[in-house]
Each structure stands twice: as C-alpha cells, then as structure tokens.
Amino acid sequence: MSTAEARGVFHRARGRTLDAFPSGKEREWKGPFYFIQGADPQFGLMKAWSTGECDSGGDEWGQETRLTEQAVRAVNRLNPKPKFFVLCGDLVHAMPGMPWRKEQTEDLQRVLRDVDSEIPLVFVSGNHDVGNVPTPETIEEFQQTWGDDYFSFWVGGVLFLVLNSQFLYDASRCPALKQAQDQWLDQQLSIAGQRKCQHAIVFQHIPLFLESIDEDDDYFNLSKPVRKEMVDKLSKAGVKAVFSGHYHRNAGGIYQNLDMVVSSAIGCQLGKDTHGLRVVVVTAEKIVHRYYSLDELSEKGVEDDLMDLLKEK
C-alpha cells in the first residue's frame, strides 16, 4: 500500500488534533475505558541487530511483519473493543534518507490496514521516524506519511497529548519547530492545570527517565535538565502518566505522582521481555496498566481483574 492509499485508511492527526475523536463529543467523563499501547514495531531492526549493522542493515523485516500481524489480530479479538491503539514511535528502522525506508513503511502500513476500523490508530514519532537530529524536512516527511508529529485529542473526558520527543533530545537543526511545540504544550497543559479534564496522559517515544529522575543521562532517556523541567511542568499540570517506548524493555518509575511507563517492543527485544503490548485501563480515579506478551494477549485476552475495572461507575 502506498502512502497515498494509507491516507484513506488511517485517521491521521491534522491541525494538531485527531479527527477520529470529535472533541465536542468527547470532553465529558462517560465512565471507565481502556486502550492499547504498543511501541517499536521497527521493521528491519531484528536483522540489523543480529548482524551488528544497526546503522546500515535492516534489509529484511519478515519477523517484525509477523509479530505486528499477531499484534493486530490480538487487538482485533478484544471484547469490548479498546478505544484506540497507540504506537509510541520507531515505526520502521530505516532512518530518513536510508535504504529500505519506503519498503518498510509500505509493509507496515499494509499490516496496520487490518486493524479493526472501529479501533483508531494513534501514531507517535520516534527517532527512527524523524531522525536522531530532526530537520524541517524529516518532520514534513513524517507528517505526510503518518500525520502531525504532535497533537492532542479527547476521549471520554480524558485529554491525551502526543509529543515529538526528538525536539527534547536534539532540536539543533529545527529550533523554531521545537519552540512551536513548547508553546503549544504550555497551552494544552493550561487546560489540564485548570482540571477541565478527568485525567491528562502523555504519549512520547523517548522516556523522561527509565527508573529514577536522578539517573545518569543515557541514549535511552532524556538529559537531566530536560527531564526535570518536563516532569515539573507535567506534574504541576496534573498529568497522571507518560507512556513511551524506545528502550525495547519494560521499565519505569513514579516521581511527583507522575507514572513514567516504559513499554517494551512489538519488534526487537534488547532485554529479557517478550514481544508484547500494554493494556491501559482508565477509571475515574486511576490509570491501571499491564504488559502482555503477544502470545498471552492472543490466547487469553485481558484478565478479569482489569476488565472488572470497566464496570465501575
């Protein structure tokens, strides 16, 4: 499927919002619901990682294709249906301008076309999607292919914010774009800060931190000054959770009542976790989440204790 064809299949964020959820109908709390979070299908990484050619490899992605197909089947079987399925970045492995990027993208879009049409897809940009050091050109390519790189949407009285975390990592080649996201985020957080939403939840690719706010800077987290500024800003506004990927392992921690959730990958695993997805239940009082392997979710579905939370008034 070409990028042009994908535009007719997926709800893509435009104008900094997602038309799958008309905000006028979704700003009121209507009771508990759940969504599915995935991260890093990253078509091409498994071959590149196995050969030690992470920068130039990635000419095969059959394993990632099969795993993402399994993820789609598992999500489609869920009953009741999740409100949406969010993919937290690194959709494909090939960086902008690298070989195989077009083919990886088309194959991923072909697989995702099979997601139930009643389960909107939410796309988050990762470093492999816009580049480690993004430029206006790489951002434009992402927007044309997958939709806006940052945006907000409402579901059942909950405000969801999707951020481009590469602007927080290195915006040296697109400072004006970073400034625009910063200003937009402040406006969105003012809504959350006035408690006009039941909860506020953030999606981004790179975690603020992996386990602790004071951990050392690493490839897989944001620098200390940036993460502390962001955590203070988000927690002050009442944001309850940040969901991310990037680490290809499960991790996370809590700081100032902010739950930093790091989910492992649909695709290549860099630790001891399994290929999987995270089920996230949103109730009036709390956000409860659990990571499932693709096999577990496919064979058994979501466990009763999580489903029971959906019955709360």
Automatic annotation (TrEMBL):
Subcellular location: Cytoplasm
Cofactor(s) recorded in Swiss-Prot or TrEMBL: a divalent metal cation
PANTHER family linked: METALLOPHOSPHOESTERASE, CALCINEURIN SUPERFAMILY, SERINE_THREONINE-PROTEIN PHOSPHATASE CPPED1
Residue intervals of the Calcineurin-like phosphoesterase domain: 73-249
Lineage, broadest ranks: Eukaryota, Metazoa, Chordata, Craniata, Vertebrata
Top EC class of this enzyme: hydrolase
UniProt catalytic activity: O-phospho-L-seryl-[protein] + H2O = L-seryl-[protein] + phosphate; O-phospho-L-threonyl-[protein] + H2O = L-threonyl-[protein] + phosphate
Role: Protein phosphatase that dephosphorylates AKT family kinase specifically at 'Ser-473', blocking cell cycle progression and promoting cell apoptosis. May play an inhibitory role in glucose uptake by adipocytes.
Gene3D superfamilies associated with the record: 3.60.21.10
Documented EC number(s): 3.1.3.16
Main location: cytoplasm
Pfam families (alphabetical): Metallophos
Membership in a protein family: Belongs to the metallophosphoesterase superfamily. CPPED1 family.
InterPro entries noted in UniProt: Calcineurin-like_PHP, Metallo-depent_PP-like, MPP_CSTP1, STPP_CPPED1
Keywords recorded for this protein, A-Z: Cytoplasm, Hydrolase, Metal-binding
TM annotation in the entry: none
Keyword Cytoplasm tagged: yes
Domain of life: Eukaryota
Protein name per the record: Serine/threonine-protein phosphatase CPPED1
